[in-house]
Amino acid sequence: MILYKQVILPMLTCAAQIWGLAAKTHKKKIQRLQNKILRILTNAHWYVRNDVIHQDLKIESIEDCIQKLSRKFCIQNIDHQNPAISKQVQFAQPSCPYSTTVANPGGGYRAAAPQS
């Protein structure tokens, strides 16, 4: 598991902060790769469900990881001193399930409450 957490997981989540609004098909490809790697590491049989492997190893899915990293990234950049960086947060769409910001009625954006 040390190999997974120190070498493989950083490669899977490289630049994950900007994947928050990516299409589900793209994120599913990375999730399949994570599932295959965890199966190889644990030598799990074909009939063992992927969510059971994740629970036993206490490893979050790539989709949950992307969501968490994306929210953290956007929240940190809302009040950034550089206006070019702080304006990038405005591209988040409130209707998207990974949206980390919501539009204020008076204009501008604020951090959305985390979804449980």
Automatic annotation (TrEMBL):
Protein name per its UniProtKB record: RNA-directed DNA polymerase from transposon X-element
Keywords: Signal
Signal peptide (from-to): 1-23
Statement: the UniProt record of this protein carries the keyword Signal: yes
Domain of life according to the entry: Eukaryota
